[in-house]
């Protein structure tokens, strides 16, 4: 979340950032109104506490002099009752302020291009040569069925729509991709692997920004206060919730494989075929905890780390910087990595690499000490897919297919198969 002090001191800046996002400014106006009432109430409480403290000193002096203090004691009792009533009212305002601030998205960095939606995103660079086919390339779902490595019909029988069964060499290829990505990020990119729970408490979802705004996108357990994670970002980021990281411990770089679960509410009719938009899918996630003045440099490095997967697989891709109107709720700056799908003659997102600055850290109360005896400060968090495994699987099928309907295997994956 944004720092309430920052909103109070820079309301025009915050509202301009929300306007650039295409978000409503009403929450900021509401915050300013409630915050003003809270400050007035706080001033009343402080004034009464000062009077009570002065009365306490007078009472102590009267008792010392063995003088009747009953009148002052009665006055102090009235003040204490007033303070308690006002403090209860103050807590109500504080709850309102927290609810308002939790619903306000992050504001874009100054370097983020202004725009309304994905059509205004900025292409940063491209890599790789698009393969020229002397036959019409099949979509990945059709090829997967022909090779008998993807079974959508039996998945639908088991679980309904937007699920898939990986069979035989398809299951092996999915598993090989996971192992390859983890090995690459651990051995070459210097990440520490963690394997975290796939179910988390509401506090964890609030920490990374999924709650309260995106509850309809989440799968929730019926009998327990637990949610299935939409990405390992949630559980990995919350590893350090309510902690103060010691001086010299940053940057912390984690990589995690996990299954991910999304309702895809509001996306029906989009990408129904294939494995692009599933309710359950596999992903390898990169998460960083860094010092604030280094977070943008670390974002560039994180993006390069994710790119390396596609370079090793020799899959053509491009990097897009998201415009203000296409940013995610918690992000201040984002690069999308889009891989080439020849059957569609277009690029498709396979990773979003984002700098959240202190937005998630404030929600999750993750701080660090800049020096041994220094006052704790909020860390900056970053994350990106390294990569979405199913989409990588689909891109391999499309880019490595042969005229006879068979499939080549990228060289780097052969030792895993």
TrEMBL record:
Positions bound to ATP: 262-264, 349-352
InterPro entries: aa-tRNA-synt_IIb, aa-tRNA-synth_II, aa-tRNA-synth_II/BPL/LPL, Ser-tRNA-ligase_type_1, Ser-tRNA-synth_1_N, SerRS_1_N_sf, SerRS_core, tRNA-bd_arm
Domain of life of the organism encoding this protein: Bacteria
Residue stretches making up the Aminoacyl-transfer RNA synthetases class-II family profile domain: 186-410
CDD domains (alphabetical): SerRS_core
Subcellular location: Cytoplasm
Statement: the UniProt record of this protein carries the keyword ATP-binding: yes
GO biological process: selenocysteine biosynthetic process; seryl-tRNA aminoacylation
Presence of keyword Nucleotide-binding: yes
Gene Ontology terms for molecular function: ATP binding; serine-tRNA ligase activity
Record pathway: Aminoacyl-tRNA biosynthesis; selenocysteinyl-tRNA(Sec) biosynthesis; L-seryl-tRNA(Sec) from L-serine and tRNA(Sec): step 1/1
A Pfam family of this chain: Seryl_tRNA_N
EC number from the UniProt entry: 6.1.1.11
PROSITE patterns: AA_TRNA_LIGASE_II (PS50862)
Binding, L-serine: 231-233, 262, 285, 383, 385
SUPFAM superfamilies: Class II aaRS and biotin synthetases (SSF55681), tRNA-binding arm (SSF46589)
Similarity-based family: Belongs to the class-II aminoacyl-tRNA synthetase family. Type-1 seryl-tRNA synthetase subfamily.
Subunit structure: Homodimer. The tRNA molecule binds across the dimer.
Primary role: Catalyzes the attachment of serine to tRNA(Ser). Is also able to aminoacylate tRNA(Sec) with serine, to form the misacylated tRNA L-seryl-tRNA(Sec), which will be further converted into selenocysteinyl-tRNA(Sec).
Domain remarks: Consists of two distinct domains, a catalytic core and a N-terminal extension that is involved in tRNA binding.
Protein name: Serine--tRNA ligase
Native source organism of the sequence: candidate division WOR-1 bacterium RIFCSPHIGHO2_01_FULL_53_15
């Amino acid at each position: 979340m944004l720092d309430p002090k920052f909103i109070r001191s820079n309301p025009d800046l915050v509202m301009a950032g929300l306007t650039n996002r295409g978000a409503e400014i009403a929450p900021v106006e509401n915050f300013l109104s409630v915050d003003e009432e809270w400050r007035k109430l706080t001033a009343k409480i402080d004034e009464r506490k000062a009077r009570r403290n002065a009365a306490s000193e007078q009472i102590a002096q009267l008792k010392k002099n063995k003088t009747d203090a009953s009148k002052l004691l009665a006055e102090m009792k009235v003040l204490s009752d007033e303070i308690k009533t006002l403090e209860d009212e103050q807590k109500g305002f504080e709850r309102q302020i927290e609810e308002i601030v939790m619903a306000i998205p992050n504001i874009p960095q100054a370097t983020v291009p202004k725009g309304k939606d994905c059509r205004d995103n900025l292409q940063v660079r491209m890599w790789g040569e698009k393969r020229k086919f002397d036959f019409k390339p099949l979509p990945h779902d059709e090829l997967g069925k022909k090779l008998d490595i993807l079974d959508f019909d039996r998945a639908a029988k088991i679980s309904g729509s937007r699920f898939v069964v990986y069979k035989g060499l398809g299951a092996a290829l999915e598993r090989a991709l996971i192992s390859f990505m983890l090995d690459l990020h651990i051995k070459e990119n210097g990440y520490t692997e963690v394997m975290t729970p796939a179910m988390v408490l509401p506090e964890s979802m609030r920490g990374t920004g999924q709650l309260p705004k995106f509850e309809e996108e989440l799968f929730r357990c019926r009998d327990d206060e637990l949610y299935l994670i939409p990405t390992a970002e949630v559980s990995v980021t919350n590893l350090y919730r309510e902690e103060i990281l010691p001086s010299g411990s940053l940057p912390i770089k984690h990589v995690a494989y996990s299954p991910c679960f999304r309702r895809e509410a509001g996306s029906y009719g989009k990408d129904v075929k294939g494995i692009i938009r599933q309710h359950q899918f596999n992903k390898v996630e990169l998460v960083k905890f860094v010092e604030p003045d280094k977070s943008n440099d670390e974002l560039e490095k994180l993006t390069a780390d994710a790119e390396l997967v596609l370079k090793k697989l020799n899959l053509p891709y491009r990097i897009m910087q998201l415009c203000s109107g296409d940013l995610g709720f918690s992000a201040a700056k984002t690069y999308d990595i889009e891989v080439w799908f020849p059957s569609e003659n277009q690029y498709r997102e396979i990773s979003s690499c984002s700098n959240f600055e202190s937005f998630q850290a404030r929600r999750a109360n993750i701080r660090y000490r800049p020096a041994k005896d220094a006052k704790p400060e909020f860390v900056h968090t970053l994350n990106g897919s390294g990569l979405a495994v199913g989409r990588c699987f689909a891109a391999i099928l499309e880019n490595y297919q042969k005229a006879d309907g068979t499939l080549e295997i990228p060289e780097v994956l052969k030792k895993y198969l």
